Amino acid sequence: MSVVSRGEIRLSAPVVRGGPPAPPHPTKIDVHDMNFFYGDKRALEEINICMQSNLVTAFIGPSGCGKSTFLRTLNRMNDIIPGTRVEGRTHIDGQDIYAEGVDVVQLRRKVGMVFQKSNPFPKSIFENVAYGLRINNMARSKAELGERVEESLRAAAIWEEVKDRLHESALALSGGQQQRLCIARALAIRPEVLLMDEPASALDPIATQRIEELIYDLKKNYTIIIVTHNMQQAARVSDFTAFFWLGRLIEFDRTEKMFTAPTEKLTEDYVTGRCG
Amino acid sequence: MGAVSTDFRAPDLGTRRRHVVDRGFELLALGALLLALAALAVLVVDVLSDGAGRLNWQFMTDMASRRASSAGIYHALAGSVFVIALTGALALPIGVAAAIYLEEYGSARSKLSRLIEINISNLAAVPSIIYGLLGLGLFVRTLSMDRSVLAGASTLALLALPVVILSTREALRTVPKSIREGSYALGATKWQTIWFQVLPIAMPGILTGLILSLSRAIGETAPLITIGALTYVPFAPDGIWSAFTVLPIQIFNWVSRPQAEFQENAAAGIIVLLGLLLIMNAAAIFLRDRFQQQGRG
Questions:
Q1: How many Å apart are CA A204 and CA A200, to the nearest integer?
Q2: Residue A129's closest chain B neighbor by CA?
Q3: Pick from A262, A240, A199, A255: nearest CA to A68
Q4: Contacts of B248 (CB under 8 A, 6+ apart)
Q5: How much is the ipTM here?
Q6: pTM value?
Q7: Which residue of A has its CA nearest to B295?
Q8: Mean pLDDT score of chain B
Q9: Contact A171/B at CB under 8 A
Q10: pLDDT over 60 at B297, yes or no
């Protein structure tokens, strides 16, 4: 039964496996036939996608289409929701992250995440960034801790704004600053992949622009996946774009092709605002 | 449908009637509040007029005596403070750990977990004398603690536990999911997330629950009488194995004497007990505000 229905799904919604070859960017994340369930409800169907390192991939699609769910499968953040289940194969750097014996703590150090709503801890700016370093024993001395915090805040382009008030509450920062602080916090533990779940959806245009510039800078060192509802944002920041619809990956291709000459009718309708 | 009067200063009959009902309920609620306050005021004034004359530094520092004029409250005050401090020291770690397990580790929506929660709520309502019987059987006899401070504090800790567990669970639930996710996303383990992020945020609520349950425990007499603390102990406890008496028991002792002087002593003892309660509740508010400020800054 499942084999037959799988075949049908493929026919009705062909998926593109991997993007066009781009030699300098080796495969970072390789997902094969992934199904995801909330209890009995299947939220993701037969996802096949291959993302390359040091590129920005944008996930677009209407609300509830599964793009955030898929993003959260990549650092196993859905594990903390009871009753969820994953099928298929999800490889990061050739390792199956859902294989038995995989340590999620180790995985999440490598795959960092920034959330839709900025969620600084109710502690000082310094402590927010130092937390990840401390719990993972990544700083051997106080001096090293301070250096790593500064380096992370610089990488997230917020150092100049906060350097004189590192020990004040993070909650006193503006929304845009809080989100960049959360990015600094994620960068502090030196992940290789950065997952961003609508990181600018609650920000004003200026703060959004700063986040987008930051994403552009960060891709030199990180593989970035960003979920966004904003088509222009996807077009501006990403190299590849994946379009999700009702739990399926409809199309995945270079961003300029997705926005100018998509293969699927559904993609074209969505990016031009005719549906969704 | 009748047309609504267009003159705003002359409301129609129905509107006026609704205003009367509105005002009536306001007065009714005010009356209930005043009644409660009046009862409290009568109690305080009565106790103060009886006991204030007796209350002086000597009364605070003297031990029990067979002569009313030279009897003091020191031994009972020291006993109460000692017992309650030990009760808190026992109830806080056990109660918080149990709540953490139920809320964070046990699957919160399972049938077993709900059953346990209902049972804990019921335990919180069990009459305190039942805890006294449990304490007598378990701590005094089986564990041979005798009528010690430790036996009394253990019994009161059992009494306080349900409220500590329930209020801790409530406090843990108010910690936003986004904070936990932020911590997990940085590679924190469950324990690190709970210890470094969740507990500090929940602390004001946990402490408030603890001190409220201790406030209840400090006035408890029945369970302590049951475990055998109603004896003449004219000295302050000097260790966890020492015999003890507490303020409510000493007050009860004095009230049951026929002489008027002892009645005065009882009233003065009540003032001391009320003062201790006030200090504890003030401490609860102080701690809560401090932790909340830490949360912000």
A1: 8
A2: B186
A3: A199
A4: B218, B219, B220, B221, B224, B273
A5: 0.85
A6: 0.79
A7: A122
A8: 86
A9: yes
A10: no
